[in-house]
Design goal:
alpha/beta, 6 helices, 37% helix, Rossmann fold, single chain
Length: 196
């Protein structure tokens, strides 16, 4: 039986972003842990515009190619880990925009966060976005990897080096995510394609 697919979603899209080393570390850690097949998804490469679809996302009648592509990416996943910064104590606009582009594709899937930032490690942003995940019929987990003062952990070689506590937190997150992914699987029945 194939492993469930975990998408590690790199949220930051701005120039000079520091998220890629963190996302690469977590994706590799998840691969080694072995509960999931892992796909790293970069929102900068997906290239979503500010939400501009003429119809409600629940209809799945998407006009724009970028939304259709994003729908296909999200639909194939069984679970998500969002690797996200915190901007002004709030989620990155790119994350909220990516979530708002779709509806049904998110349903009955578990999600967790690896967050990074200053003293809070991005925890305020994560707490602020969890109600949106719940509205999308997702299961946001309490387990999280928070990385405060994250720039200190990225070496001159561009490699992120987690603390032991962050590695343990990643292990706990993945273990719980695997349990929730299995528990929610019966609810994720394939949907018919949208009507033309």
């Amino acid at each position: 039986m194939p492993l469930p697919l975990l998408q590690v979603v790199l949220v930051s899209t701005r120039q000079g972003r520091q998220g890629p080393p963190v996302a690469r570390w977590f994706a590799e850690h998840a691969r080694r842990q072995g509960s999931f097949a892992v796909e790293l998804v970069d929102l900068a490469e997906v290239g979503l515009t500010l939400f501009d679809e003429p119809e409600e996302p629940a209809t799945r009648r998407y006009l724009h190619a970028h939304t259709q592509r994003w729908s296909e990416i999200v639909a194939r996943a069984d679970a998500f880990v969002f690797v996200t910064p915190e901007y002004n104590g709030f989620p990155a606009p790119s994350l909220v925009n990516a979530l708002d582009h779709l509806y049904r594709e998110w349903g009955h899937k578990a999600a967790a966060f690896v967050s990074y930032g200053g003293a809070s490690g991005g925890m305020r942003a994560v707490q602020a976005v969890k109600p949106l995940l719940s509205t999308l019929q997702m299961m946001p987990l309490p387990q999280q990897v928070a990385i405060p003062h994250f720039r200190k952990a990225i070496g001159e070689d561009g490699v992120f080096r987690p603390t032991e506590a962050q590695t343990r937190a990643a292990d706990r997150l993945l273990a719980e995510l695997a349990r929730w992914t299995a528990a929610l699987a019966p609810l994720r029945t394939p949907e018919p394609p949208p009507e033309g």
